[in-house]
Write a structure and sequence with these properties.
763 residues; alpha/beta; Rossmann fold; Spore Coat Polysaccharide Biosynthesis Protein SpsA, Chain A; 3 domains; seven-stranded parallel β-sheet; six-stranded parallel β-sheet; 26 helices; 24 strands; 38% helix; globular; transmembrane; Glycosyltransferase family 4 protein; transferase; ALG11
C-alpha cells in the first residue's frame, strides 16, 4: 500500500513538467506552421513586404495566359530582386516548381531565377506583398488585394457577358469592393479594353444605388459605394511573345510545278469557348485541297490537349485521318514549334470560327502564337474578330475571314498571288510583329515608373513608400462623367491655365492633378499635351476632371525622336513660339507649367502674390551648373542638356522652367520680339529668363523661388541646408517638388535625414 502511494506521488510530481513539455512542443509546432506559411517570425521594419505574388485560379498548361504569368514572374524579379510566390488552387494540375520549369521551357520564357521562386496554395499566401498580381477571366477579381501595388489582369470578362448566368447585386457589390483595392487593371488589347469598360459601366449601374435612396437604406446597403469610387485605371499593352528570327527553309515557289504549301495552326486542343475550332479548320482545309489539285498542301496542328478533352482530340484525329494531309502534334515542345514555324508559309488564326453568334468572349483576345509566326514571315489568314483584327491592320481585307468557307477561299487567293505580292505580305507580317514586340517591356516599365523614376532593387523601399503615400491623394472616380469640352466655356474666356506637356506614362498624374485642383481651384483649366502613345493613358488618368483640353504634340513636333533638345523640331522650339502660348487661350494670363516628375506636397501653400510676377521657377545653383560656363568651357557631357544654350548671367538665379508659373502674355511678347535671337536647340527657360531680365520684367527673387519650388539643393540657400540636415520642422514646405527621387537621394546621402520625416514632410 505504501509502495502504491509512493508511485502516485511521483506521477503527481512529474505532471507539471509534462504539461510544460506539451506547451513547448505546441509552441514549436505553431512556429513551424507560421514559418512555413509566412517565411519568418521576426522581420526588420519595412521588410515584411519583400515578396511579390501572382495568383491564378486557372490550371497551368501551355498557353498564352501562362506565358503572361511567367513573364511577369521574370519582370518582378528583375525590378525588385525579390522572391516571387506563384499562388494556385490546391487542385491545380501544376503545383511543383519542377512542373513550372517545364512549362516555362515549353513557352520559351527565360530569365526566371528559380532560387527566388516558389509555388504555393493560395491559402498559404503571405499577409502582405510588395506587388500583388491577380489574373482571371471575369470582370471583377476573385481575391482581395494584398500588395503595396496591386494589379488585376483580366484576360476577358467572360462570365459577365454570358446571358444565361444571373449576376445579382449581392455578387456585384463585393466584387466592386474588391476591385477598388487594386491600382491597375491590365488588359492585353484594345478589343479587351473596350469590352471591359463597357461591362464595368453596366456592372456599376446595376450594383450602385441611386441618390434617391434614404440614409437608412444607404447604411444597410453599402454606404461606401455612395461616395466617389476609387476604381483602378485600365491600361493595355501587348502581352509577351518570342520573335522568331529565323530563315525560312521551305517557302513555296509560286507559279511553278510541284509546289509545296504548308499551313500552320497553333493552339490548345479543347472544345468550347475560345477553342480553335479544329473540326471546322479541317473542313476548310479539305475544301482548299479540292480547289487546288495541283498543289501539295500540308496542314499542321500544334498544341497541347487540355485535361478532360482527350475525346475531342480523338475526334479531331479521326477527321484528320479521313481528310489526309493533316498532321497533329498534341505534345509539341519548343523545338517542334520552332521547326514547324520554320517550315511553314501561312499561319491560320481561327479562334471563334465555329461560333454563329456574336459572343465577344469567344473571339481571340490578342494572338500571341499568331504574332510569333508572323515574326518569322508567315503570312496570316485570320478570323476577323478580336485581337487578330488589330494585329492585321494594314493587310488586305481578304485575309480577314468570318467563316471556314471564307478561310478556304481566302487562302486559295493568297496561294495564287504573285511571288512579289506574297513576299510583300511576308515583310508586312514581320513589320507588324516587330511593332508589337517591344510593347510588353515598355508597358511593364511604365507600370513601375513614378515621377520619372523606374523601380529598381536599389530604390525599392522608398519607391513603394512614396507610391503608397501619393495614392492617398488621388481623386475618386465619380459615377457621373466629366463635363465634355463642348459643354464648357471657350478657352478664350479663361484667365488661368495649367499646362501639362509630356510624352511619358506617369502613374502619379491623377494624384498630382488632384492636389493642384485643391490648391488652385476649379477656375484653372487643364491643358494637356500628349503624344499618340500616351493619349489613352493620360485621358484615363484625368477621368472625372471637367473641361480638360487635350492637344496632340504630334501635330507640332517629330515625336519619333522624343523631346531631346538636340533635335531642331522638338520641345524647345515649340515652347519658344507665340502660337504655342496662344493655344491656351488669347486672354489667358497666368499659366502654371508642370511635367510628369513634379509633385505638389499636401502641406505646401500657393501664394496669390505670385500672380503679380511674370516668371517664377526653382532656383538655379551656381555649384555644378554648366549653364553658368561659357559654351567653349563646358564639358562634353553638357552638350546633351545644353547644346548651344547661351551662358546664364551669374546674377540670374531664377529659374527652372520645367515646373514654373508664368505670365502667358509676357511669354508671347518675348517669343514674338526675340524669335530670331535664339537657336532651335537653346533651352527655352534660359531663353525666356535672359530676356525677362534684360527687359526688366518682374521675376521672383531667390527667396520667393525657394518657397515656390525645390529641385536642387544649393549651398547658399539656408532653407536647403535645413533640408539636408534633417531639420524639417525649422523649414517651410515648398509649393512643389521637381524630381522627388533626386531630392530624396540628395538628403539621404548626408545620412542625417530620418526616412519617415522626409515622407511626412513632403508627402
Amino acid at each position: 500500500m505504501r509502495f502504491k502511494t509512493c508511485r502516485r506521488s511521483r506521477r503527481a510530481r512529474l505532471q507539471p513538467a509534462f504539461r510544460i513539455s506539451i506547451v513547448v512542443l505546441a509552441c514549436c509546432y505553431a512556429c513551424y506552421l507560421y514559418v512555413s506559411r509566412y517565411g519568418t517570425i521576426v522581420e526588420e521594419s519595412g521588410s515584411s513586404h519583400r515578396y511579390s505574388a501572382i495568383y491564378t485560379p486557372i490550371n497551368l498548361t501551355p498557353g498564352g495566359g501562362e506565358k503572361v504569368i511567367l513573364s511577369f514572374v521574370s519582370k518582378f524579379q528583375q525590378l525588385t530582386n525579390e522572391r516571387v510566390d506563384l499562388l494556385v488552387k490546391p487542385k491545380n494540375v501544376c503545383v511543383k516548381v519542377q512542373c513550372v520549369k517545364v512549362l516555362a521551357k515549353k513557352l520559351q520564357v527565360n530569365g526566371i531565377d528559380w532560387r527566388k521562386f516558389s509555388v504555393k496554395a493560395v491559402n498559404r499566401a503571405r499577409p502582405k506583398y510588395n506587388v500583388w498580381f491577380s489574373i482571371a477571366n471575369i470582370l471583377l477579381p476573385q481575391v482581395e488585394s494584398r500588395g503595396r501595388l496591386n494589379i488585376y489582369h483580366c484576360q476577358f470578362p467572360m462570365s459577365e457577358i454570358n446571358k444565361n448566368k444571373v449576376i445579382t447585386v449581392n455578387k456585384l457589390v463585393p466584387g466592386i469592393r474588391r476591385l477598388t483595392g487594386y491600382d491597375i487593371v491590365y488588359v492585353n488589347s484594345h478589343y479587351t479594353k473596350s469590352w471591359y469598360e463597357r461591362i464595368l459601366v453596366s456592372a456599376k449601374a446595376a450594383a450602385l444605388p441611386t441618390r434617391k435612396f434614404t440614409t437608412k437604406l444607404k447604411d444597410s446597403y453599402a454606404p461606401e459605394l455612395f461616395e466617389q469610387i476609387h476604381l483602378p485605371r485600365i491600361v493595355h499593352f501587348s502581352p509577351p511573345f518570342q520573335l522568331q528570327a529565323m530563315e525560312k527553309v521551305n517557302s513555296f515557289v509560286l507559279h511553278g510545278k510541284g509546289r509545296n504549301v504548308r499551313i500552320l495552326l497553333i493552339g490548345r486542343f479543347f472544345k468550347g469557348s475560345q477553342g480553335k475550332g479544329h473540326p471546322f479548320v479541317i473542313k476548310a482545309f479539305s475544301m482548299l485541297k479540292k480547289s487546288l489539285p495541283g498543289v501539295r498542301l500540308k496542314l499542321e496542328l500544334l498544341g497541347h490537349v487540355v485535361k478532360g478533352h482527350e475525346m475531342y482530340l480523338r475526334y479531331v484525329r479521326l477527321q484528320a485521318l479521313w481528310t489526309g494531309g493533316v498532321y497533329i502534334n498534341a505534345n509539341a515542345d519548343e523545338n517542334a514549334v520552332r521547326s514547324a514555324i520554320r517550315a511553314a508559309d501561312i499561319v491560320w488564326s481561327t479562334t471563334g470560327i465555329h461560333e454563329e453568334g456574336l459572343d465577344p468572349g469567344n473571339a481571340e483576345h490578342f494572338g500571341l502564337a499568331l504574332l510569333e509566326c508572323m515574326s518569322a514571315g508567315l503570312v496570316p489568314v485570320v478570323v476577323n474578330r478580336g485581337g487578330p483584327r488589330e494585329i492585321l491592320e494594314g493587310f488586305p481585307d481578304y485575309l480577314k475571314v468570318v467563316s471556314y468557307v471564307e478561310l478556304a477561299t481566302s487562302t486559295k487567293q493568297l496561294i495564287l498571288a504573285t511571288h512579289e505580292e506574297f513576299k510583300d505580305l511576308s515583310m508586312l507580317a514581320r513589320s507588324r510583329a516587330e511593332h508589337f514586340s517591344t510593347q510588353f517591356d515598355s508597358g511593364v516599365a511604365s507600370l513601375f515608373t513614378l515621377f520619372g523614376q523606374k523601380l529598381t532593387p536599389q530604390n525599392r523601399d522608398v519607391w513603394f513608400a512614396i507610391r503608397a503615400r501619393i495614392a492617398r491623394y488621388e481623386r475618386g472616380f465619380p459615377l457621373e462623367p466629366a463635363l465634355d469640352i463642348n459643354a464648357c466655356p471657350s478657352i478664350h474666356e479663361d484667365m488661368k491655365a495649367i499646362l501639362y506637356f509630356d510624352d511619358r506614362y506617369e502613374y502619379a498624374l491623377r494624384a498630382t492633378a488632384t492636389q493642384l485642383v485643391q490648391k488652385l481651384g476649379e477656375e484653372w483649366r487643364f491643358h494637356v499635351w500628349h503624344t499618340d502613345s500616351n493619349v489613352v493613358f493620360v485621358r484615363d488618368s484625368l477621368q472625372g476632371f471637367d473641361c480638360v483640353v487635350y492637344h496632340s504634340i504630334s501635330s507640332l513636333i517629330d515625336t519619333k525622336h522624343g523631346f531631346d533638345p538636340r533635335y531642331k523640331s522638338n520641345y524647345n522650339r515649340v515652347w519658344k513660339s507665340e502660337e504655342f502660348w496662344l493655344s491656351l487661350g488669347k486672354n489667358v494670363k497666368h499659366v502654371l507649367t508642370f511635367q510628369s516628375d513634379a509633385w505638389f506636397p499636401p502641406l505646401g501653400k500657393f501664394r496669390t502674390d505670385w500672380l503679380q510676377l511674370d516668371y517664377i521657377g526653382a532656383p538655379w545653383c551656381h555649384e555644378g551648373n554648366w549653364g553658368y560656363l561659357d559654351i567653349d568651357a563646358r564639358p562634353e557631357e553638357a552638350v546633351r542638356m545644353l547644346h548651344d544654350t547661351r551662358k546664364i548671367p551669374h546674377d540670374v538665379r531664377v529659374g527652372n522652367g520645367g515646373v514654373s508659373l508664368r505670365n502667358s502674355q509676357t511669354m508671347r511678347v518675348i517669343a514674338r520680339e526675340y524669335a530670331e535671337n535664339t537657336t532651335s536647340q537653346e533651352n527655352e527657360d534660359v531663353y525666356f529668363v535672359f530676356y525677362l531680365n534684360q527687359d526688366k520684367y518682374t521675376i521672383a527673387d531667390i527667396t520667393e523661388a525657394t518657397a515656390f519650388s525645390l529641385e536642387v539643393m544649393c549651398k547658399d540657400i539656408v532653407q536647403h541646408q535645413s533640408y539636408l540636415s534633417g531639420h524639417f520642422k525649422d523649414a517651410p514646405v515648398p509649393f512643389l517638388l521637381h524630381k522627388p527621387f533626386d531630392i530624396f537621394k540628395q538628403v539621404h546621402q548626408k545620412g542625417e535625414v530620418d526616412y519617415d520625416s522626409f515622407l511626412n514632410f513632403f508627402f
